[in-house]
């Protein structure tokens, strides 16, 4: 770090001077190799790519010519490991360790490595620049866009992009009430699930009686299928941190917590580094930027419990107790952590705050739809070509997300449904693909925004199985405190299991509906009261699949093990024997060269191993 | 990872000290103990209860509430099969079954030779690569039943 950055900044002017000097010390035309070091790319082997780049640059003495930046996730996980050459923005995808030597030698010559470029599946054309790839082109990346310009372990990168300017503005030119008014005018709604107006929550907390006020950033993200908070915390931790300091100033809090899942080790690490660096510069701690406002942040690692996404359960866990919710006759914004007024927002909500303060509510209000302002990050996963993280203005049609950005369904399969909102959300069918995606429209369709998971399902996904999956998930995660949730989910799980295993009977559907109504009316917290959503939406849109399971003992998607049989297509099977080796129960016999194999139904355990290994489609699943 | 020595009061105290004896940090303290010993030995829970001056019942209830904690010694290698929604629709259930079949254990169990413990996790947040299996913190994406054998063989 530069010498001056070891000193605490004592005014917004000093912050601006530091920013100037950082920008001046950098050459914007210098070639910079940007490698995604997010969890997704690391899982695909990015570490080897990083090490090889470091070695090649050192070996060639190219430190002055080529800068190297390891960043958080830019979103296109499907094509990782991702490497971008800046300032041109040349995108190399699926880069392997052995590609590095060539990339370095060609980049130095100002050339492009053709074979690593992205090929547009629609046109068959190679695309050189990141911003021209359809996946990125159709997004509006206010939050995620900075990820590839920031080394999350170096606060100077965030400062160079205008970081903490909003904090400077808030502390020097705005009153706490003024900040709340600005956030209210912008129409920011919480990104964590409910979509509650953020400013209203802040106001209640500010006006509540208490000795102190606590500020919490929720990075627990227990919602399976969502990873935007993780990616923001890994890739741009200061954006959330800056939002927290502004919020704390507006609310009048002096102690903050980042509650982050222990399953997110990189997010824990980067958040810790960010806190230390911000403290060193006087952007956290005592007398922030000379304003006499004090605010500290601690990290608390969650133990992996979905129910801890519920605010009262999260706070109980922060107090070192079991993560059980309590009835919310009194809101946490009035009595939360240690009985004091507490304000909880998730990472994405906090990261929006500096944008609003810096650019103004009017600017922010122009983005998004009538009742849902700004952008939303979605994790586009499941049966979709371009899996990854995307960010779009609220109100974009579902089909533009799935087909425009997501590139449609792989292997020519047919789209069946998209599941939004995590286990508390619901499934939306094909005839609603024109639905604009915002808080209110998703509610109307029986689903919800949740934290932004979007799981795409194709014709091979069984909707009864999906309902069972979520009910089982929630049954396991139910804390057990209130009866409707504890017993109701267990009963629903039994019924759904019976249906998927061929023991469904007349009246089961009606019973599921009655149980659902009871859970909605009588559960203690939102986990229980929203738990029937996956069942209700699948019943609403895919009732025929339930009926096929119950009446015909048939799983139309071929998923439910007890209701499917495997057989060999004698026309297609060349007798290669791959399935014979794969079969764990010796149910398939090699009948000699070029003769189709034989499958013994008695021995078959329906594990599907043969179906997975056969590339010729000779194993039939019905 | 191996099951290490018996927990000493000293070790537990040093972990408690690193959190300034703050009872609010109980979850983090248990995580650190588990990282040290691979599970939560009974003695360590007693030391925590005494060190933080909170009832043993509270320590025990937290230790058994969160999925990440184990009160039994675990294997040298920890397999975590992600059962998040994205992994589920891509066939994570069958991968889990296959691993269980090869090792002859159920989720949450440890093999007789303490080579593997198989656990499930609700989501590791790398949904784009599903189904995912994490062994000792190393991610293997796009898992299929026929890749299981080779994957397991690479761990002693």
Would you kindly provide a brief summary of this structure?
The complex is a heterodimer of chains A (622) and B (156). Chain A is an alpha/beta fold. In chain B, a hairpin with a 2-residue loop joins strand 3 and strand 4 (138-140).
Task: Pick out its properties.
heterodimer; A: 622 residues; alpha/beta; 5-stranded mixed beta sheet; 24 helices; 19 strands; B: 156 residues
Helix content of chain A: 25-40%
Helical run tally of chain B: 7
Overall mean pLDDT of chain A stands at 93
Lateral strand order in the biggest sheet of chain B: 2-1-3-4
Strand order in space, largest sheet of chain A: 12-11-15-13-14
Based on DSSP secondary structure assignment, what is the total number of beta strands of chain A?
Answer: 19
Percentage of residues assigned to helices of chain B: 40-55%
Distance between termini of chain A?
63 Å
Oligomer type: heterodimer
Average residue-wise pLDDT of chain B: 89
Indicate the structural class of chain A.
Answer: alpha/beta
Low-pLDDT regions of chain B? none
How do the SSEs of chain B run, as a string of H and E?
HHHHEHHEEEH
Q: What amount of the residues of chain B lies in strands? A: 5-15%
Shape of chain A: globular
């Amino acid at each position: 770090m530069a010498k001056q950055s070891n000193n605490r900044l004592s005014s917004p002017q000093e912050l601006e001077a530091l920013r100037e000097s950082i920008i001046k010390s950098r050459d914007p035309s210098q070639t910079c190799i940007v490698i995604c070091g997010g969890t997704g790319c690391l899982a695909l082997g990015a570490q080897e790519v990083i090490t090889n780049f470091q070695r090649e640059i050192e070996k060639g003495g190219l430190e002055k010519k080529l800068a190297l930046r390891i960043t958080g996730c830019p979103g296109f996980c499907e094509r990782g490991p991702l490497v971008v050459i800046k300032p041109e923005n040349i995108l190399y995808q699926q880069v392997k360790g052995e590609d590095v030597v060539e990339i370095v030698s060609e980049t130095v010559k100002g050339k492009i490595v053709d074979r690593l470029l992205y090929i547009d599946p629609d046109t068959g054309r190679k695309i050189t620049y990141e911003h021209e790839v359809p996946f990125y082109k159709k997004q509006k990346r206010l939050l995620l866009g900075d990820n590839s310009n920031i080394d999350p372990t170096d606060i100077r990168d965030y400062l160079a992009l205008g970081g903490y300017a909003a904090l400077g503005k808030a502390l020097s030119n705005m009153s706490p009430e003024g900040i709340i008014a600005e956030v209210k005018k912008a129409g920011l709604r919480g990104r964590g699930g409910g979509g509650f107006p953020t400013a209203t929550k802040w106001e209640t907390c500010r006006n509540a009686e208490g000795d102190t006020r606590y500020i919490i950033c929720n990075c627990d993200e227990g919602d399976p299928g969502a990873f935007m908070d993780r990616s923001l915390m890994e890739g741009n931790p200061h954006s959330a941190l800056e939002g927290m300091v502004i919020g704390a100033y507006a609310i009048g809090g002096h102690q903050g917590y980042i509650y982050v899942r222990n399953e997110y080790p990189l997010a824990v690490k980067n958040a810790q580094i960010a806190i230390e660096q911000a403290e060193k510069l006087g952007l956290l701690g005592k007398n922030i930027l000379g304003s006499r406002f004090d605010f500290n942040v601690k990290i608390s690692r969650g133990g992996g419990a979905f129910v801890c996404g519920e605010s009262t359960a999260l706070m109980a866990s922060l107090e070192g107790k079991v993560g059980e919710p309590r009835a919310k006759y009194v809101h946490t914004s009035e009595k939360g952590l240690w009985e004091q007024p507490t304000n909880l927002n998730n990472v994405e909500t906090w990261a929006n705050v500096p944008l609003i303060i810096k650019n103004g509510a009017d600017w922010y209000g122009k983005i998004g739809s009538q009742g849902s302002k700004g952008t939303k990050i979605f994790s586009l996963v499941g049966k979709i070509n371009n899996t990854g993280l995307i960010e779009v203005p609220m109100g974009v049609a579902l089909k533009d997300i799935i087909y425009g950005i997501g590139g449609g369904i792989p292997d020519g399969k047919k789209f069946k449904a998209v599941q939004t909102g995590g286990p508390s959300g619901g499934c939306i069918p094909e005839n609603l693909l024109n639905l604009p995606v915002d808080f209110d429209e998703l509610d109307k369709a029986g689903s919800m925004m949740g934290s932004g998971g979007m799981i795409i399902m194709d014709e091979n996904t069984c909707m009864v199985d999906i309902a069972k999956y979520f009910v089982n998930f929630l049954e396991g995660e139910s804390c057990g405190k209130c009866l409707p949730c504890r017993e109701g989910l267990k009963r629903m799980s039994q019924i759904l299991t019976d249906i998927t295993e061929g023991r469904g009977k007349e009246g089961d559907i009606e019973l599921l509906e009655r149980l659902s109504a009871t859970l909605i009316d009588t559960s203690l917290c939102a986990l229980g009261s929203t738990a029937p959503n996956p069942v209700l939406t699948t019943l609403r849109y895919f009732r025929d699949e339930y009926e096929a399971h119950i009446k015909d003992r048939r799983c139309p998607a071929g998923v439910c093990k007890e209701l499917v049989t495997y057989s060999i297509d004698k026309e297609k099977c060349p007798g290669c024997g791959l399935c014979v080796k794969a079969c764990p129960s010796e149910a398939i016999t090699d009948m000699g060269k070029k003769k189709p194999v034989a499958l013994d139904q008695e021995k078959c355990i329906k594990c599907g191993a043969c179906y997975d290994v056969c590339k010729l489609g000779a194993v039939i699943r019905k | 990872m191996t099951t290490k020595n018996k927990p000493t009061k000293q070790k537990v105290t040093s972990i408690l000290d690193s959190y300034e004896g703050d009872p609010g940090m109980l979850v983090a303290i248990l995580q650190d103990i588990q990282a040290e010993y691979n599970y939560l030995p009974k003695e360590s829970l007693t030391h925590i209860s005494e060190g933080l001056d909170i009832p043993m019942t509270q320590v025990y209830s937290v230790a058994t509430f969160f999925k990440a904690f184990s009160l039994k010694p675990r294997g040298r290698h920890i397999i975590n099969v992600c059962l998040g929604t994205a992994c589920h629709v891509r066939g994570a259930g069958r991968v889990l079954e296959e691993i269980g079949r090869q090792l002859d254990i159920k989720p949450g169990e440890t093999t007789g030779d303490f080579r593997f413990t198989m656990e499930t996790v609700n989501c590791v947040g790398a949904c784009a690569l599903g189904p995912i299996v994490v062994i000792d913190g190393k991610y293997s994406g796009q898992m299929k039943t026929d890749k299981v054998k080779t994957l397991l063989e690479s761990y002693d």
